[in-house]
Amino acid sequence: MIQAEASIIINRPVEEVFAFVANQHNAPQWQPTLLGVHRITEGPIGVGTKHIVVRAFMDQHLEMINEYVKFEPNQEITFTGGSDETRFATSYVFERVDGGTKITNVTHMGQNHAFKGDDQQVVRQLETDFMAAFQALKTLLENQQSPINNTIQS
User: Could you tell me which CATH class the domain 2-142 is placed in?
Assistant: First the structure.
């Protein structure tokens, strides 16, 4: 099992950052390796919400199902899932800080040697992808002129 982690501070209120990140339909706007998201459950977003996602990673296209297993508004989202190639658990932790929100991504992944390279190369690629995504999220949210819609859509 490998672990990768990244953090960034976004100069927006935690409520806005959480609401935007919690709605996975927003994710392709800020995660360049995420090729598509389709929600497969109905009702409000929370524990039990499932999505099919398609992601490019280390020269592969992975189709995975994820499920929210922890959903604490403005604090944490954790989802688990996987594909034939990998199993993972990802947490986004949100903290109020002066001037905005600190968001941290921690991912644990069992890769079963599905990707080229050793575990350290996989970790480096994950952390590079996380930081690129966080930089895009920061730019996107900080350039919003009006408050971000805090409605978490179903």
Answer: alpha beta
